[in-house]
Design a protein that fits this description.
The chain is 40% helix and 15% strand. The chain has 15 helices and 19 strands. The two termini are 26 Å apart. The C terminus is likely disordered.
């Protein structure tokens, strides 16, 4: 059990709960129950949370208590709510659900689902060759205990060389290997952010970063991204006014918008961070994936003279998510402090996986070049399908990365995601990428599936979007507060 949600908080999360998809009008209680199930499915409402009492929620939504009672009863019948007289009701999920690759809960019988909730590619063919070579290298390590808190030296040197090739001189002592980029972020937060510390993030931003910050009970402030990216004066002004302990930024093909931060702003951000005492956590997950010949600006760390920049990255996006290899680039003393923190978490990353990563990085030029060609073809297929089937949606063509950030023709992102699930397409609605249920007009669409699957997915999405319009907005006798 993770806590309790108050009536006004749940009302804010529910948003336009009355605008549910469907080919026929649902009763009030069914619409309310369906929206709660949607919040559970996309992770905005955690499991094990105690929901507000029926009377409290009814007052917050300005509807009858009878409607809330019936909604709670339906949620109990579908296995989404457990209640005990006198103690309250807690969120749960039916036994026929599992954790999906997105980290969200999903039915067990969804193997044919077109999953646009995951922004990651299938493994490259070179992975098998790298794995075989790694097994041949493994005997060199079998005589020891196998614990390398900062990572094996071959991989740290390979990662350091990659930074140097980008114009940022780096030694192996400045690299710590982690079990993925998310693990790298978690370790940095454990070291650099006390519980309740202040953090500045972009809006929208990576949902799992928000989850990690929530785990540290961080006080989050946001810098809203414009249609063309960061507003320099607003971003720098936010740093100077809020003086956060940390700022988490994604300057290379930002997730989910795909924006690329210019070199001039990178330099100014580092200077401003130093002036106000803010450490910058720079997520470089997509740095290997510029498309259309886009030239990358220098790494943010190039402008760092005071150990204010901590860079994190990994193998998930250019190579394969199943290879849980990430890293932190920081000063050598910071790496040693991170290693001390790590010993209390997971000791070290698997040696065999690290050896596989060494061989993949040795063939990086060929592998990444193929990935870029593949992604460009898939991106263009997705853009073409959207232009044909959903012409009213507005999309900025990204110059790299793996995602499109689409502005929809109405605030229907969550409703559309619930409807698409019924026709075999999983979506990540806009509110997952922000705070307090905002961004209902936006949807993240990764172009990591084969082109034919992307075209098929857009066709299904367009059909259910049409159904939403045909169903029309339901009229309720009882007014609802939309927060």
């Amino acid at each position: 059990m993770t806590g309790q949600v108050r009536g006004v908080q749940l009302a804010r999360l529910l948003g336009q709960w009355h605008a549910l998809p469907g080919r026929r009008r649902n009763p009030d209680y069914a619409a309310l129950a369906g929206t709660v199930r949607g919040l559970l499915a996309d992770g905005r409402l955690p499991l094990g949370v105690r929901l507000p009492a029926e009377r409290e929620l009814a007052e917050a939504l300005r509807i009858s208590r009878t409607t809330v009672t019936a909604a709670y009863r339906q949620l109990r019948e579908t296995g989404h709510l457990a209640s005990r007289r006198g103690a309250g009701s807690w969120t749960m999920l039916p036994g026929n659900h599992r954790v999906a690759s997105t980290g969200l809960w999903t039915p067990l019988d969804d193997r044919e689902m077109l999953d646009l909730g995951v922004a990651a590619l299938a493994a490259p063919p070179q992975l098998l060759t790298a794995a075989r070579a790694a097994t041949e290298d493994l005997p060199r390590y079998l005589g020891g205990a196998g614990y390398h808190p900062t990572g094996i030296i071959e991989l740290r040197e390979a990662v350091a060389d990659a930074y140097a090739a980008r114009g940022l001189p780096t030694s192996a002592d400045q690299i710590m290997v982690t079990s993925g980029t998310q693990h790298a972020l978690d370790l940095v937060l454990r070291l650099a952010l006390a519980p309740g510390g202040s953090v500045l993030v972009e809006s929208p931003t990576y949902p799992n970063a928000l989850a990690a910050l929530a785990g540290r009970r961080a006080r989050i402030t946001t810098h809203g991204l414009a249609a063309d990216g960061w507003e320099p004066d607003l971003l720098l002004g936010s740093l100077r006014q809020t003086r956060p302990k940390l700022a988490y930024l994604i300057p290379e093909f930002q997730n989910p918008t795909g924006h690329l931060m210019p070199a001039s702003l990178r330099e100014r951000v580092v200077a401003a961070a130093h002036a106000v005492g803010t450490d910058l956590v720079i997520d470089e997950s997509f740095v290997d994936l510029p498309l259309d010949g886009t030239e990358l600006p220098p790494p943010v760390g190039v402008y760092d003279r005071h150990s204010r920049v901590i860079s994190i990255g990994g193998m998930s996006k250019p190579y394969w998510g199943g290879l849980r290899i990430g890293w932190v680039r920081a000063s050598a003393p910071q790496v040693q402090r991170l290693a001390a923190v790590r010993v209390g978490v997971d000791m070290a990353s698997p040696v065999l996986d690290q050896l596989v990563a060494v061989h993949l990085l040795a063939d990086a030029d060929a592998i990444v070049a193929e990935r870029r060609v593949q992604l460009a073809v898939q991106r263009d297929a997705l853009l073409g399908a959207l232009a044909q089937r959903l012409p009213d949606w507005r999309v900025t063509v990204p110059r790299g990365g793996v995602t499109l950030w689409a502005e929809l023709d109405g605030p229907v992102s969550s409703a559309l995601a619930r409807a698409a699930e019924e026709v075999g397409v999983r979506l990540a609605p806009g509110p997952r990428f922000g705070l307090d249920g905002t961004m209902e007009r936006f949807l993240r669409l990764p172009f990591t599936l084969p082109a034919a699957d992307l075209v098929e997915a857009v066709g299904r999405i367009a059909a259910v979007r049409y159904d939403l319009d045909r169903a029309g907005r339901q009229r309720w006798r009882e007014p609802a507060v939309i927060a």
